[in-house]
Write a structure and sequence with these properties.
Layout: H1 2-8, E1 16-19, H2 26-38, E2 42-44, H3 57-65, E3 69-72, H4 74-81, H5 86-89, E4 98-101, H6 108-118, E5 125-127, E6 162-165, E7 178-184, H7 199-207, E8 214-222, E9 228-233, E10 237-240, E11 243-246, H8 247-255, E12 260-270, E13 274-283, H9 291-304, E14 313-316, H10 330-337, H11 354-361, H12 364-368
C-alpha cells in the first residue's frame, strides 16, 4: 500500500491526498489509512455521500482542503456528471495535480468528463485495477511515465505478472492482442494468504479453477499495445440465445448516449432466450423519461454493439442502490430483475435504502402486473 500510494499517486511531502472511499472498504484501508500514513501523508477522511447536501460536495471539500490527489469511484463520477458541469465549475480546483479511479472499469465518456471538466485537461488520470484480495494496485499507469487510454487500466505495477487465460481450456493466451480471464502468474507483496478459519475455501476460490494461477474473477482484454482493459466480472456475463456478452459492454454503450448519466445492466430469466438483458438507466438532469427515449436507447445499443445486445427492458432509475463508498450493489438489481424481492439480503450498507423500494415499484413485473 505504501509503495503504490507513493508511485501511483506521485505523492510528495506536503501534498494533501484524498481517497473518498468508506474506511470499511479495502480502498479505505489501503489508501486512507495504511499507504498514506506509512508515507507520512496528509490524508483526508470523509463521511458522507457525493450528492449531499448538493452535487458540489466533493468539489467543495477539494477547494477547502486544497486537495492535490483525488481518488474516487467511476459510479460516483457518472452520478455527478449527470448533475451538470456547473457544480464543478463553481469551485476552485487549481490545487488538483492528479486524479484516480477505483472499484470498477470506467467508461470512456466518464473518463473524458473527469479529465476535461474536473481536471481541466491538466491532471493525469490513474485508472487502477486491484481487489480486496490483492491489498494494493496491480494494474495502473504511472503518472507522467505511461501514456493513458480512456477506460484502460494500462499495464502492470512493478513486479506484477498478469496473464490472460482461455476460459474454456485454461491455456495461457500469449499473443499480445487477446481476450479471456485475468489471472496472476506469480505472487506479489500485499496479497492475501488465507481466509480466516477456512484455508480450504481460500485455495478452492482463488487457485483451483486455473491450477498454478491466482484467478481474479475478472474478464480482460489486452490490446495490440499490451494495455489491459477490464471487461467486468466473469459472473457478470449474460448468455442471450447462446451469445455471451459482458454487462459492462452494454452499460458503456448506454452511457455513451448524451442523455444517459448512468446505467447498470443485469441478466434475468427469459422464456425464449434463456437470459434477457435488463437495464437500469439514470438520465441526465432535466431529461424526461419517455417511451420514445426508451426506444431510442434500444436502437442506440443495437447500433453500438449489435441486435443481440438490445435491452429487453429498460427501467428508469432516478437512483441506483449504492454503498456509502459508491459501489453499485448489483445483487439487489439482479433480485429485482428476477422478481425475487423477498430475499434481497442485508441492505444496511446502502447510502439511500429508499432507492430500492422505488426500483421495486417501477420494475418490469409491476409494470406488467
Amino acid at each position: 500500500a505504501a509503495m503504490t500510494h507513493k508511485y501511483v499517486f506521485d505523492y510528495h511531502d506536503g501534498d494533501v491526498f484524498w481517497c473518498t472511499a468508506d474506511v470499511g472498504w479495502v480502498t479505505g484501508h489501503s489508501y486512507i489509512v495504511y499507504g498514506p500514513l506509512a508515507n507520512g501523508a496528509t490524508t483526508v477522511m470523509f463521511e458522507g455521500v457525493p450528492s449531499y447536501p448538493d452535487a458540489g460536495r466533493f468539489w467543495a471539500v477539494c477547494e477547502k482542503h486544497k486537495v492535490n490527489q483525488f481518488y474516487t469511484a467511476p459510479t460516483a463520477l457518472r452520478s455527478l456528471m449527470g448533475q451538470g458541469n456547473e457544480w464543478v465549475e463553481k469551485y476552485d480546483l487549481s490545487s488538483l495535480k492528479l486524479l484516480g479511479t477505483v472499484g470498477e472499469p470506467i467508461n470512456p465518456e466518464a473518463w473524458n468528463w473527469y479529465n476535461e471538466v474536473v481536471g481541466r485537461g491538466t491532471c493525469p488520470i490513474v485508472d487502477t485495477w486491484w481487489q480486496t484480495e490483492t491489498g494494493g494496485h496491480l494494474l495502473t499507469p504511472l503518472p507522467g511515465a505511461i501514456p493513458t487510454k480512456p477506460g484502460s487500466a494500462t499495464v502492470p505495477f512493478f513486479g506484477v505478472q498478469p496473464v490472460i487465460l482461455d476460459p474454456a481450456t485454461g491455456e495461457e493466451l500469449t499473443e499480445t492482442a487477446t481476450e479471456g480471464v485475468l489471472c496472476i502468474k506469480d505472487s506479489w507483496p500485499g496479497q492475501m494468504r488465507t481466509v480466516w478459519g477456512d484455508h480450504e475455501r481460500f485455495q478452492e476460490t482463488y487457485f483451483q479453477q486455473y491450477k498454478g494461477y491466482y484467478f481474479s474473477g475478472d474478464g480482460c482484454r489486452r490490446d495490440a499495445d499490451g494495455y489491459y482493459w477490464i471487461t467486468g466480472r466473469v459472473d457478470d456475463v449474460i448468455n442471450v440465445s447462446g451469445h455471451r456478452m459482458g454487462t459492462a459492454e452494454v452499460e458503456s454503450a448506454l452511457v455513451a448516449h448524451a442523455q444517459v448519466a448512468e446505467a447498470a445492466v443485469v441478466g434475468y430469466p427469459h422464456d425464449l432466450k434463456g437470459q434477457g438483458i435488463y437495464a437500469y438507466v439514470t438520465l441526465m438532469n432535466d431529461v424526461e423519461p419517455t417511451d420514445a427515449l426508451r426506444k431510442e436507447l434500444e436502437k442506440w445499443v443495437r447500433t453500438e454493439i449489435g441486435p443481440i445486445a438490445k435491452p429487453d427492458f429498460i427501467q428508469w432509475a432516478p437512483g441506483l442502490p449504492k454503498t456509502r463508498s459508491g459501489k453499485i450493489m448489483r445483487r439487489i438489481l439482479r433480485k429485482i430483475a428476477e422478481n425475487d424481492t423477498g430475499s434481497l439480503g442485508d441492505i444496511s450498507t446502502l447510502a439511500e435504502p429508499a432507492v430500492v423500494e422505488e426500483l421495486i415499484r417501477n420494475s418490469l413485473y409491476q409494470k406488467t402486473a
